[in-house]
Write a structure and sequence with these properties.
Length: 244
């Protein structure tokens, strides 16, 4: 899972992003292949250009729009070519109760500001790091135990899709159900929030091949978000508790 993940900074730190996201997986894939060890590698929805209108499958052609996306795409190619016993799992919009992520940022801003403005024209698949970790562990076990276990590239995201604004509204509403204060979340276009790196407009990922290969069925992102909010904010309150 180690990677150069500063998507915007990668636009100016090209060599560092390439070293960690392309060269390091190449070395890891070569070393694991020599040792006869299968490799599970994590990649990203940012390998896609975001111009599709249906969920991307592993067969959807890639066309990264950023240095980060290009460096992760190069890492995928290196893993595929150096170790045939690999599982590359593309994920997206990962959040958890730990470290920095979108859920924690929205909770902090909702506590500090009177209103939030969030991009509403980028569509994706929010994903729980805990759900992803459990899935990766199952795939690793399958590959370790069974030399004929499926390999290849698959997508692991929680199911359903939303925009960053829709995700932010769900976070604020979910926190309010747990006693936090609710603030309005205004929808803005990407053009109103310029960033150094270009991000896909639509990078919803299909998990059909993951289910076919490993029998894994990720749950809807809203349920996964509830678990994260339970940990970060507390359990949902009853109507009486909220009124009190
Ligand atoms: N977050 C997302 O929304 C998202 C979406 C799609 C794909 N991904 C992929 O998911 C994976 C995990 O990303 P993340 O979001 O969890 O990012 P993260 O929080 O930045 O974690 C990256 C990890 O890489 C480690 N690392 C960084 N530089 C290293 C180096 N030179 N040597 C060894 N380890 C190093 C970091 O170590 P420290 O703990 O010491 O900092 C950290 O544990 C990555 O492959 C990323 O491309 C993430």
């Amino acid at each position: 899972a180690a990677a150069y993940t500063a998507v915007d900074r990668a636009e100016s730190e090209i060599a560092a992003a390439w070293a960690l996201n392309a060269v390091a997986p190449a070395l890891l894939a070569a070393a694991t292949a020599r040792a006869g060890i299968p490799l599970v590698h994590v990649s990203t929805d940012y390998v896609f250009d975001g111009r599709t209108e249906a969920p991307c499958t592993p067969d959807t052609p890639i066309d990264p729009q950023s240095v980060y996306g290009a460096s992760k795409a190069a890492g995928e190619i290196a893993v595929r070519s150096a170790n045939p016993r690999h599982a590359i799992l593309r994920t997206a919009w990962v959040a958890s109760p730990h470290r920095g992520n979108f859920v924690k940022t929205m909770l902090r801003l909702a506590a500090e500001r009177e209103r939030l403005s969030v991009v509403d024209d980028q569509h994706g698949s929010p994903t729980s790091a805990g759900d992803l970790a459990a899935g990766l562990a199952q795939i690793a076990q399958a590959l370790a135990r069974d030399p004929t276990a499926p390999t290849g590239t698959h997508h692991f995201v929680n199911t359903g899709a939303t925009t960053w604004c829709g995700f932010a509204r769900a976070i604020v509403a979910g926190a309010a159900r747990r006693g936090a204060r609710a603030v309005p979340v205004e929808a803005i276009p990407t053009s109103a929030f310029p960033t150094p790196a270009r991000r896909p407009t639509y990078s919803v990922l299909s998990t059909a091949s993951l289910t076919a290969a490993y029998g894994l069925r990720p749950r809807p992102w809203e349920r996964a978000l509830d678990d994260i909010l339970d940990r970060l904010v507390g359990p949902e309150r009853t109507t009486t508790e909220t009124q009190a």
